[in-house]
Amino acid sequence: MVNINLLHDHGQNIGIVLSKLPGQDECVQVAEIFKQISDGSRLRILWLLCHCEECVSNIAAAMEMSDPAVSHHLKLLRKSGLIVSRRDGKEVYYKLADTEQAQIVHRVCEEMFRISCPLD
Fold first, then answer.
1. What is the structure's pLDDT at 97?
2. CA 82 to CA 95: how far, in whole Å?
3. Total of domains in the chain
4. Domain assignment of residue 89, yes or no
5. Reported pTM
């Protein structure tokens, strides 16, 4: 249990709760992920990439956006670790990262949209 001098004792065992409180660095990492999916365009792009691997031009066409706009969103999603890319000749392909955090975001999106994964 964390030993903290609290100003008031409300009888709620806050010490037990505080012992499980995530660290500041962990909260910053999770907040960054939430920032990325708080943008509707990035959320749509991420949802697409949860279900297929695609190049910038096809993503742009599907989203009815310009290639540069999509590239900007992809850069942010990649920086946050939610997606990964691979180069094949002149094309760069993007897909959901194979990480626990990315999979959790995928499941949360599916639940929030109340839809099932089209590949299931």
1. 97
2. 9
3. 1
4. yes
5. 0.78
Pairing of strands 83-88, 91-96: antiparallel
> In the prediction, which pLDDT does 7 show?
67
Token duo for residue 96: 């959901």
Residue 91: domain span: 23-113
Tens of pLDDT, residues 33-83: 888 889 999 999 999 999 999 999 999 999 999 999 999 999 999 999 999
> Do residues 57 and 9 touch, judged by C-beta distance below 8 A?
no
Please list the residues that pair with 54 across neighbouring strands. 94
14 lies in some domain? no
Beta bridge partners of 91: 88
75-114 exposure pattern, b = at least 16 Cβ within 10 A, e = fewer: ebbeebebbbbeeeeeeebbbbbeeeebeebbeebbeeee
Q: How far apart are CA 108 and CA 84, in angstroms?
A: 19
d(CA 57, CA 68): 9
Give the model's pLDDT for residue 1: 42
Percent of the chain surpassing pLDDT 90? 58
